[in-house]
Amino acid sequence: MGATSHETPAASAPRSEYERQPVPDEARLGFKSFLGMYAGEHTAGTELMIGPLFVLAGVSAFDVVVGLLIGNALAVLSWLFLTAPIGTRARLTLYYHLEKIAGRYTVILYNLANGLAFCFLAGAMITVSATAVGVWFGFPLPTLADMTPNSIGWVLSVLGVGIMITIVAAYGYRFVSWFANIAAPWMVLIFLGFGIVSLKWFIDATGTTVASAGDLWQLAETAIWTGVHVPGQPDFTIWHVIFFAWFANMAMHIGMSDLSVLRFARKSWYSIAAAAGMYVGHFMAWLAASMLFAFQMYDAGLSSEAAVVAAAEAGRIPDPLPGPLADQALGVAGLICVIIAGWTTANPTIYRAGLAFQAVIPRVSRFHVTIGTGLLTTFVAMFPGVAMQLLGFVALYGLLLMPIGAVIVIDYWLLPKLGLKSFYAEYAGHRLTIPALGTWLVTLAICLMLVRLADIEIFFVALPGWFIAAALFTGLSYLAQRHRTEAAMTTATVPGSSATTTRE
To answer: What segment(s) does the record annotate as region Disordered (predicted)?
Structure first.
């Protein structure tokens, strides 16, 4: 479907983003806007960071290929059946929707946590783009062990990239979508090129003759994804890969952050566009980036467990930096791809963070809040340790927002069927509600206890955590609303009291 006039960005002043009202008919967007946005957002510079981390985590060929196929399918289904139906019915931002459920004070706490998490995530994306700038200008780049800035050149490159990304994000979703639609097709070809080039390197280095799919698979098992784990890094199985792929964007689908994006969709099924991001970005691009780094390991003689352990002890494990990897594979085209890919992912992320903070201070325009958010994100990006620990951070970030996703689903679909009120805070005039706030905090406490005390890895606690949150919110909503009903009935029976204490 072609873009219509209202799908193009404003050329001058930013237009209304409908932060506190449903998106009207004339502002809704076609399928193409979401296809470009999801493909651009999830085919990103961070894929060149995540792919190598799979190699460091010791995945086998079967584990990474099959695990990504399954996990990404589950992610697309989560957008399609959980997020989009509510987004295209209520047509509210996540933050205003939650305010109606949980009250203003609850949302302030949530938005601060949500906005800060988005800033850290977008900061990692700016970090990725800055590694490409570093290759061009030749200043020292961070290593796997660096947590803080290591050169003036690094700080200046992050600052320059961050300011440009912030300007794009500040002009709103239409501008973000337009930018992604331009960049996405070219980036897809570049990531495919990364995979083809690295495969050619492996074929030449191993002397393998690839005459069938079986030959290719044997090469993948024996030379690319060998299952050798680097000490000090997470140790992944197929279950880790499945749950990581499913929950890498848990905050967006199960956590309902993409209500803010999908509220613009004319049809709920437009969310199937997420498959463009999952299978181009989180399948093809992750595998291609993984192969680039795997060849670095192979070329350094790190293909056996003993060699890897010795190299780790000596601090000789190659640094998984997107800029140098892309430059080695495709030169200038690869470097440009890393910079643009970081932009297309950080743009909607900063946009979401701006909405979160703007909901806390609604009297300040979203445009100006997004500018401030982008500057904060740029500061975070100067610390490369965030990007170097991306697997663990993504899991923690998704876990942080997951309980609120369960609250929104239960409030919208289940509570009315139980005879309870949806949007209870708005109905009762409360600025804080115990059911929502209690569900969020108690669920997080239980999940973190499972990680710390029961030794369950963080990648696996979110799924049971969602059902814990759903049960908690249902039970607490019943208790809170029953108490209000009983109090109203008692007041109504007192002589001289009004029988219209509650409003329908």
So the answer is: 1-21
